[in-house]
Structures are given as structure tokens and as C-alpha cells.
Specification:
The protein is built from 19 helices and 25 strands. With 558 residues, it is of the alpha/beta class. Strands 1, 2, 3, 4, 5, 6, 14, 15, 16, 17, 18 and 19 form a twelve-stranded mixed sheet that branches. Helix 7 runs antiparallel to helix 10 and helix 13 crosses helix 14. The longest helix has 21 residues.
């Protein structure tokens, strides 16, 4: 039997007009700005003019990622379709994919199989231009910064202390470290520079946390781009850049409305990476979904130690959100990889490898329940090669923690395969009351906040902060940023900062190499291990398989 690819499934589905999807979501046509037949932006005034009580908020997260795959986005979409099938009014809220991973190795972020958001080609490529607007605003600020220096530098900016980088939405290691301004006096001031990928730009984080155009503009003005010769911070506001940047971003701030394969309304908006940023879709999209649906299903990037931690400790803190239930996605195959099993051998039953790998899942479960005080369910994406004994093993281990395990077949069956998970999520929301709390409080020092995440969430024993990072922390606390939450940039492949330490490692130390402030976003960025803010392409990029015919039909996009 030949399986259809994700793009073939998506292209065979007849999409409903976006005006019809808006009607299903209860959005009056006066708020709908159409981008063609199947996409739209929704005006922010909807939030001000809707007094409907918020629905339930469901967060989908996962175990630590492996090459075997977990299917978090697919589960999120399938769960939403499952909730719709059992009669619930539901909206799904996801992040937009970055072109870097689309053309690299990770792939897109529109789900898979029969649990996708569509039009998947548009969503995975240019979509409505949000990322391009973010890149333009980022690089406008960079241009104004360098122009200010070139035109006399009245602010006294030290070119050795510039912290603002240019960005491009592509995996391009060649741009990590560059020298620009060469070619003589008329071509600028020579200096060392570099690029981040657009999703790592502070402007991406700001767009996803801003609640209005005014809030967006004020946050942009607070961005620190560098320091003066006497070590005073210089902001985008000092360069008078915030107005023009907001003009570039005013439409990007509006959430994008699309649909699932089964016609469930979906907001897809914003897309910061969870290993180097806060990994959540926009506050405006989440709040809009909460106003429209009885259930909002959203996700956070990578494993629960990254995306869910940042969703709970940063987004919920800033936006005043409290999840009603959490879904933790796992696969038997991925857990066996955490137990040391080779990827090529995963089809064989191996309870020994599963026993070694399952502590990874159990630590994530314990964190959600015990650290954050939230009810949760484990969703196991079942593969045909999973045996009943392996499934029962996971169920028993989770039951010992007081957590139910539900099998999910949404990749193959869409919403039908998510009905059982949907019923358990409804039960959690209606019958189990959480006691939500953060993993650290605002009044702790920056170091204490880092230590809290490392010890409570990662399971580490200590934090080692490099001398340069110690000075950065002292400077940030001196400038009044000590009360900000921390956004820890860490490898997604391990609880530790070493991607080779699989499972649930213990007694490890996390090394902090760099600490900087994202003053506009409102958090302190902590870089650990060998984390980089500009990925590179693999030996065989996914881009090599992507093509388009003379009719404009795309192939090879997953």
C-alpha cells in the first residue's frame, strides 16, 4: 500500500472559503481581511469589542525530541479536530514555520498525515508575509544604528559593544560572523557583525508578546542595540526607530486565520524557536482563540523543558494566562531511542530500552504536575510496530504518577483518531482543578532564576556561569532588569546542555556562556552550552527535494 505524502494529502483536500471558517469561529466579516480565498488576517479590534468569557486553554507539549519523531503539532491539530468531532466549539492556535528548517532538516510546522493545517504550502513558505515584515523591521533598526555611527555618532556608541544583529529567515552559517562597512569612508564604519535567523530576533519575541500596536511600539523602543563608550545602554528609541518599525509590523501583528483538513478554525501566528527564544505563538492569537472557542488548543516548541517551561514561566506570566490542562506527547520509538536503541532497530520490541528511556517522559510529567501544579495526560502516538506490551508498560508507569495515558492515531485517522484524547482533555478541564504556579518568582536574582529552572525542570545539580556572563548579569541587575524572567537557550535534544545525554540525566552542571537582555520582549536571554542563534544547513538539505511544475504545483514539501 502506497502512503500519500503530507503535501499530497493536503493538495487532495478541498478547502472551504476562509469567510466560511471565520463564520464557524464566530468572527464577524467586518474583522476579516482576506489574503486570497483560504487565508485571512483578523483585526485586533475584535479583542476589544468581544466581551465573551474565555474558554478553556489546553497546552500541548512533548518529551525531549529525537530523530524518531514525536508529532506534537500533528497531535495538537488532531486533538482540536477530535474535540470538534465530539461536539466542542474549538479553535487551534499554532506557530508559523520558519523557512530555515523548511529548507533544512527539521521540516515544516503544519502538522502531518490527516492532521494538518492548510493551505500547507503557503503556511510553510511565505504565508502572509509576517516573517518578512519582522526581518525588515529588524534590519531597518540595524541600518539606522550603523547610519547613526556613520553620520557622526552623537550618542557615543562604542562599535565594540553593539549587540544588535541583522537577520534573515534562512539557515546560513556563513553569516554567523561577518565584517561589514568595508570599502572606504563612504561605505560605512568597518566593524564585526553577524546575523541571527529571523525567528531568533527579539522582534519576533516582541511581536508574539505585544498586546496592541501601542504596546508593540513601546516594546520596540525599549530594545537595547548596544552600549556607549561610558557603558550606557542605547535603545531603538534613542535612534528614533520605533515608529517606522511599527509601521512595518502593524499588519503582521494581526493573527492569521486558516483551517485544519477537517475545517476547524486555526490561528497560525508568530514563530520563535523554543531552543533559542520563548517558543510560543502570539499572545494576540491565543487570547483571540480563547474569546472565540470553548476550547483553545495550543502548543509550545520542542520538549516540555523548553517550550512548555517558557510558555508557563514567560508567556503565562506576561499575558495572565493559566492552562486548564496539559498534553504531553510521546512515542514508543522515541522513548526507546532515549534508552540507547539505534534508530534502525526501533521496529523491534525492546522493553529494556523502553525502561531506560521512559524516565525522560516521567520527568516531564512530574514537572507539569509537581512544579507547575497542572493536570496532564500523556498522548502516545501509536506506530504500527509498537507492541501491546510496550504500550502497557508506558500506561503502567504513568498510572503510578496518577496520570492517564491515551493512544492517539491522528496522523492516520485525523480527528477520529483524536476522539479518545479529546474526551480525556475535556475530563481534565471539567473535573480536575490545577494549582498553577511558576517555577520561580519575580523577586529572585537572575542567577537564582537560572538555578531554579536547571534544578527543578532540567533535573541538573548546578549551574556554572562563565566570568564574562557573571559580569553581564551584574550589569543587567544594575540596570534594573533583575526582575525579568529568564529565557534559557539550550539544546533541544537533552534535559542538559549536552545533546548526547539522552533519557533523564542526573547530577549534571549547565554551563552559562552568555547573558543578554531582550528589554523589549521583557526577558533575560541565557545562552548555554554550544547553542547558536543561526543554524546551518545539513549535508543534504530538504531544499534539494522541493520542486514546482509549470502549473505552480509544489512537490517534495514533506
Amino acid at each position: 500500500m502506497a502512503f500519500l505524502s503530507d503535501i499530497e494529502i493536503a493538495q487532495q483536500t478541498e478547502l472551504r472559503p476562509i469567510s466560511e471558517i471565520a463564520g464557524i469561529a464566530g468572527i464577524d466579516e467586518k474583522y476579516v481581511e482576506q489574503y486570497g480565498r483560504t487565508k485571512a488576517k483578523i483585526d485586533l479590534s475584535l479583542l476589544k469589542e468581544t466581551d465573551r468569557k474565555n474558554g478553556k486553554l489546553v497546552l500541548v507539549t512533548a518529551i525531549t525530541p529525537t530523530p524518531a519523531g514525536e508529532g506534537k503539532t500533528t497531535t495538537t491539530i488532531g486533538l482540536a479536530d477530535g474535540l470538534k468531532r465530539i461536539g466542542k466549539n474549538v479553535i487551534v492556535a499554532l506557530r508559523e514555520p520558519s523557512l530555515g528548517p523548511v529548507f533544512g532538516i527539521k521540516g515544516g510546522a503544519a502538522g502531518g498525515g490527516y492532521a494538518q493545517v492548510v493551505p500547507m504550502e503557503d503556511i510553510n513558505l511565505h504565508f502572509t508575509g509576517d516573517f518578512h515584515a519582522i526581518g525588515a523591521a529588524n534590519n531597518l533598526l540595524a541600518a539606522m544604528l550603523d547610519n547613526h555611527i556613520h553620520q557622526g555618532n552623537s550618542l557615543g556608541i562604542d562599535t565594540r559593544k553593539i549587540t544588535w544583529k541583522r537577520c534573515v529567515d534562512m539557515n546560513d552559517r556563513q553569516l554567523r560572523n561577518i565584517v561589514d562597512g568595508l570599502g572606504g569612508r563612504v561605505n560605512g564604519v568597518p566593524r564585526e557583525d553577524g546575523y541571527d535567523i529571523t525567528v531568533a530576533s527579539e522582534i519576533m519575541a516582541i511581536l508574539c508578546l505585544a498586546t496592541s500596536i501601542t504596546d508593540l511600539k513601546e516594546r520596540l523602543a525599549r530594545i537595547i542595540v548596544g552600549y556607549t563608550f561610558d557603558d550606557r545602554p542605547v535603545t531603538a528609541g534613542d535612534l528614533k526607530a520605533q515608529g517606522a518599525m511599527t509601521a512595518l509590523l502593524k499588519d503582521a501583528l494581526k493573527p492569521n486565520l486558516v483551517q485544519t483538513l477537517e475545517g476547524t478554525p486555526a490561528f497560525v501566528h508568530g514563530g520563535p524557536f523554543a531552543n533559542i527564544a520563548h517558543g510560543c505563538n502570539s499572545v494576540t492569537a491565543t487570547k483571540m482563540a480563547l474569546k472565540l472557542g470553548d476550547y483553545t488548543v495550543t502548543e509550545a516548541g520542542f520538549g516540555a523543558d523548553l517550550g512548555a517551561e517558557k510558555f508557563l514561566d514567560i508567556k503565562c506570566r506576561m499575558a495572565g494566562l493559566v492552562p486548564d490542562a496539559v498534553v504531553i506527547v510521546a512515542t514508543v520509538r522515541a522513548l526507546k531511542m532515549h534508552g540507547g536503541m539505534n534508530k534502525k532497530e526501533l521496529s523491534a520490541e525492546n522493553l529494556g530500552a523502553l525502561e531506560k528511556g521512559i524516565p525522560n517522559l516521567l520527568r516531564h510529567v512530574a514537572n507539569i504536575r509537581n512544579v507547575y501544579g497542572l493536570p496532564c495526560v500523556v498522548a502516545v502516538n501509536r506506530f504500527p510496530t509498537d507492541t501491546d506490551r510496550e504500550i502497557e508498560f508506558i500506561i503502567e508507569k504513568c498510572r503510578a504518577l496518577g496520570v492517564n495515558t491515551v493512544l492517539s492515531t491522528v496522523w492516520a485517522e485525523g480527528g477520529k483518531g483524536g476522539e479518545a484524547l479529546a474526551r480525556e482533555v475535556v475530563r481534565l478541564c471539567e473535573e480536575e482543578k490545577g494549582d498553577f504556579r511558576f517555577s520561580y518568582e519575580d523577586d529572585l536574582s537572575i542567577r537564582e532564576k537560572i538555578e531554579a529552572v536547571v534544578t527543578k525542570i532540567y533535573g541538573g545539580s548546578a549551574v556554572s556561569i562563565a566570568p564574562a556572563a557573571e559580569k553581564q548579569i551584574a550589569k543587567l541587575e544594575e540596570l534594573g532588569f533583575g526582575s525579568c524572567p529568564v529565557c534559557i537557550a539550550k539544546t533541544q535534544y537533552s534535559f542538559s546542555d549536552d545533546p548526547l545525554k539522552l533519557g533523564a540525566p542526573e547530577n549534571f552542571t549547565v554551563s552559562v556562556k552568555n547573558v543578554r537582555i531582550s528589554a523589549g520582549a521583557g526577558f533575560v536571554v541565557v545562552l548555554t552550552g554550544d547553542i547558536m542563534t543561526m543554524p546551518g544547513l545539513p549535508k543534504v538539505p530538504a531544499a534539494e527535494k522541493i520542486d514546482v511544475d509549470e502549473n505552480g504545483r509544489i512537490s517534495g514539501l514533506f
